[in-house]
Amino acid sequence: MPAVSNFYPIGTPGTPWGNAERAVWLSKQSRQRSYVTDVVERIERLSTRFDVSEYGTLNYSPDLYRLFAIRSRNWRDGKPLVLVTGGVHGYETSGVHGALQFIEQRAADYADRVNLLVAPCISPWAYERIHRWNANAVDPNRSFRENSPAGESAALMQLIAPMRGKFLVHIDLHETTDTDESEYRPALAARDGKPFEPGEIPDGFYLVDDTENPQPGFQQAIIDAVAKVTHIAPSDEKGRIIGSEVVAPGVIRYPMRELGLCGGVAGARYSTTTEVYPDSPRATPEQCNAAQLAAVCAAIDFALSHLDQ
């Protein structure tokens, strides 16, 4: 893992950023990959088999980003609703490509049984810049709340508002990377004027369950499926993963709605947030995508097999 500095090179330690510091931070961000080439063109190819809709636009001048959702073509009232989200943090690559891979390879297997709604890249500006925040230095995955400060979060909430509380499953695809510790946590501390407290990055896949709606059997089914694809993160010497108590192998819990996390936005009966570790010497990008795909399929399979419970 890269060495971590206790001082982030923007701002004054102990003082939250103002507009000037945010402007300096923004000036250092540069496009490193193409949302249109990597994501939009794949979505457009899917439009022959699925219903593709534009659910919002993000204006980060001079860039304009169209937000896309993919739905089952044979959508029918009465079928269970399944929501798959990816790219809430744009730099978490397998979240985006795992969601697209699911649509391309496996969604047809569920078309007659569920109504699928997939938002594969919620934060395209951050996807292009391989970053966690949006252009305003706001984390979309702490912003799924009323009067959201993040356009990315507000657009998704508006999309699912008519269906909120009706979803059977919501699986939100994420990664935990070495840069969480070397870049994003120090930046967060600097932005908020707080001291940076070093942590550890777990080596492997893990899940975040919802404290307000724990579903241990559901989480275990996903862990079992993903373990066939890549390794599960062990707990540290304190029995924790990223500072949270491990409630089952590879599973921790957060209060999703309280924290404004995407995983709590749908009010689903079964919800989880995946966390893949792409920097592991034991995992390839292909394995990370495959782990996300396996997690989505296991989530839907479990939920469908427990409809009457």
TrEMBL record:
One of the GO biological process terms? proteolysis
Q: Which GO molecular function, any one, fits this protein according to its record?
A: hydrolase activity, acting on ester bonds
- Gene3D superfamilies with a match to the protein in the record: Zn peptidases
Record-annotated active site: 275
Residue ranges constituting the Peptidase M14 domain according to the UniProt record:
31-303
Entry's transmembrane regions: none
Note the InterPro entries from the entry: AstE_AspA_cat, Peptidase_M14
Keyword annotations of the record: Hydrolase, Metal-binding, Zinc
Query: Required cofactors, per record?
Result: Zn(2+)
The entry assigns this protein to a family as follows: Belongs to the peptidase M14 family.
| Protein's name according to its UniProt entry | Peptidase M14 domain-containing protein
| Annotated source species | Povalibacter uvarum
Q: Recall the taxonomic lineage recorded for the source organism.
A: Bacteria, Pseudomonadati, Pseudomonadota, Gammaproteobacteria, Steroidobacterales
